[in-house]
Amino acid sequence: MKIKIDIDPQNEDTPVITIQAQEWSTEVEAIIRHLKELETAETAPKRLVGTDGERSVILQPQDIDFVYSTNRKVYAQTAEGILELKLKLYELEEFLGTFGFIRFSKSVIGNVDQIKRFELSFNGNLCVFFKSGAKEYVTRSYVHHLRNQLIEGGGNRDK
């Protein structure tokens, strides 16, 4: 791989990246994925703040079992309890994706690293038990994605 950088005061304000290759490859895909992660990392929140009544708590992603929305509010389930978050669920999915969180259902995003065990429900859903003792369900449409994520070992963040 060759890298060429052109620093010139007459260039555009916004950096332009051009990738030249004979064909689409996993290397090109990895570069694009990394660039997108850098772009979202700049605009994403740097830390999460949860509230419990009058108390505000700074949350580390690894301390969260799962995030869910109900009644137009978003909550984080931790070992210590439930905290309300001010971000939207889709914003949290983007931010927490690099920390091992994946979609469990339309209203739940779970931390794969905090999973202790699974149980299959009679209706095809998967009951996930977390290390903290909390439990949540993965709907049938998301079970396959969770299975793939576990087989792959958590995706890019392990590399």
TrEMBL record:
Cited Gene3D superfamilies: LytTr DNA-binding domain
Alphabetized PROSITE patterns for the sequence? HTH_LYTTR
**A single GO molecular function term of this UniProt record:** phosphorelay response regulator activity
Show where the HTH LytTR-type domain sits. Answer: 48-152
InterPro entries given in the database record? LytR-like, LytTR_DNA-bd_dom
Fetch the SMART domains from UniProt: LytTR
What protein name is recorded for this chain? LytTR family transcriptional regulator
Q: Which organism is it from?
A: Chryseomicrobium excrementi
